[in-house]
Specification:
Blueprint (H helix, E strand, L loop, with lengths): L2 E4 L10 H8 L3 E4 L8 H9 L11 E4 L4 E3 L6 H25 L1 H4 L7 E3 L41
Length: 157
């Protein structure tokens, strides 16, 4: 697995044949700059979100097909609404970017969740099977992939 740096991405640029080949052989396309907008206000809001230890959820997820937010422990309705709006907008921007950059995939894909993990993994006790910084095969007993390939888009905020 190799990290392929994409340094000079411009809006409207599409993947090269080499980009597709590298993705399909297990390499990672790394965009030095986030190729879609995530405003400083959105970043600040996301970073201010804290999950409680009482009913801890590793992920806050947005389900675009249902327009539903799950895993949020926020009791403040305004904050909950704002997080929902940010996650909806983020999901749409990622989908739009990916459809533009990887149009070959867009016609047959199945859109899944957008998730936000408000707790840093580094330095906390996490079972090996639950770590995201290790190479792993996504295996969800409750949502099996049924042999489908997964394309995951990560954003560092």
């Amino acid at each position: 697995m190799t990290l392929i740096r994409i340094e000079n991405y411009r809006h409207g640029l599409t993947a090269t044949e080499d980009n597709y080949r590298r993705l399909e052989t297990g390499d990672i396309l790394f965009f030095v700059s986030t190729p879609f907008e995530l405003t400083s206000e959105e970043r600040a809001f996301l970073l201010s979100q804290k999950q409680t230890d009482v009913s801890y959820h590793k992920n806050i997820s947005y389900r675009p097909l249902e327009d539903r937010l799950k895993g949020m422990e926020q009791r403040d309705e305004n904050a909950r609404w704002r997080l929902h709006e940010i996650m909806r907008s983020y999901s749409r921007r990622v989908i739009d970017f990916t459809a533009s950059f990887l149009p070959r995939y867009a016609g047959n894909w199945r859109i899944d969740y957008a998730s936000f993990r408000p707790v840093e993994e580094e330095g906390r006790a996490v079972a090996l099977h639950a770590r995201n910084d290790l190479i792993h095969v996504d295996s969800f007993p409750t949502r099996p992939s049924d042999g489908n390939r997964l394309l995951r888009i990560f954003t560092n905020i």
